[in-house]
């Protein structure tokens, strides 16, 4: 009915999208969210922008979507449990002299700030792993009850051998064979002697005395395995089988492979109808790596402090840049490419402004140009239906941009298209640019009109001046700080205070 095709990374084929809901109305989508012990990096931003486009496009097609994106705030272990390794959150807490939950809150807030700057829509539910310990313990019990889990010295492991012997497809998603599963298992180094099979993985981990984030369970004090939270929370909010599960390609193994194993172990069914994986973002042709100095944080991109970029690029330039590649292709970020993206975005926004100002006067007769414009619009949607092909859809939109410029330069009269096509063009340009691609005109702040924002800002600047005149420094600083939080900077000059976006 709705012609959408999605590349399913589980079956490795492009297939027609059919929702599980018999009426075809409701869709459940789960995307693995961030681990909140440091700032979200640019590669993660790409993944979240990708699924924001998926979410926006499904909404535009009229589906009712429940979009769940979790926050991983349970401290998981790096390396060998027995060597006294700390969880990443515990480690960060000690380093910054904060409570683990302060670390979680701080980086969750920062993550939300970046997501807001990138104009991603908030998910319908954003569950935290620490808020779902009960559900995770219940799932471990179910897995043990069904014979897919076993307890050893206060930890519980998933029995992958049983799944493999029963031919239930452990390794199908990642396409890994037994040898890879064993050698690449994330838990490989940990408590190897406790596991019955090398590819088994922990679903509940006994807490070492130094582990801060810990909860009581039937198997003693510990914390859930990393993969478990997504199985437990997707089941709780979307049911045992739901429509779309997304995440970065790096999560395919072991995370998603193990999610599938846990769901089969607990409920006996495949959890997901369509698995979608976003590809990597690389920088200057190489994998991003902090230790090699080949890395940029979103903040550095926006404030221009990265030595790898010649200047600051706005969040919308970054978003536009990401739209220029298909989500399943790797995307190479370079300064040149960002400059080109900046120009492209500007050209697009200008064309839309021109279009809004054009006054229609003309005939209703259909012409060749009329057909061309309608064809470009239809083709842009066909591209989006083809596994969310944003670069191809953008190319069609730029075809429309050229036509709009010709109208403006009087190279073609506006009455060479019909009123209906003119109205459609206006409506569709705005729907594609703002609603589906989620771009914002950075000349305007947010959704409101410029006049409204200007008026409000003048009022705020006046309040601040009054506070300063009365030497109420705390109040004037508060106004400045609160504005800074939403990306607005006040500068004091001879002519009075001015304001601008950071
Ligand atoms: Zn996950």
CATH architecture name of the largest domain: 3-Layer(aba) Sandwich
How does the major sheet shape up? 4 strands, parallel
CATH class of the largest domain: Alpha Beta
Tally the helices: 16
DSSP E strands, number: 15
Bound molecules: zinc ion
Kindly state the mean pLDDT as a whole number? 90
Overall morphology: globular
Question: Could you write a compact summary of the structure shown?
Answer:
Helices cover about 45% and strands about 15% of the residues.
How would you describe the overall organization of this protein?
This protein has 3 domains: 5-11 and 25-278, HUPs (Rossmann fold, 3-Layer(aba) Sandwich); 282-436, Isoleucyl-tRNA Synthetase, Domain 1 (Orthogonal Bundle), CATH 1.10.730; 450-501, no CATH class. It contains 16 helices and 15 strands. The model is unreliable at 78-84 (pLDDT under 50). β11 and β12 (286-287) form a beta hairpin. It has a 4-stranded parallel β-sheet with strand order 4-3-9-10, sandwiched between helices. α7 (228-238) crosses α8 (252-267). By secondary structure, it is α/β, with parallel strands linked by helices. The structure holds zinc ion.
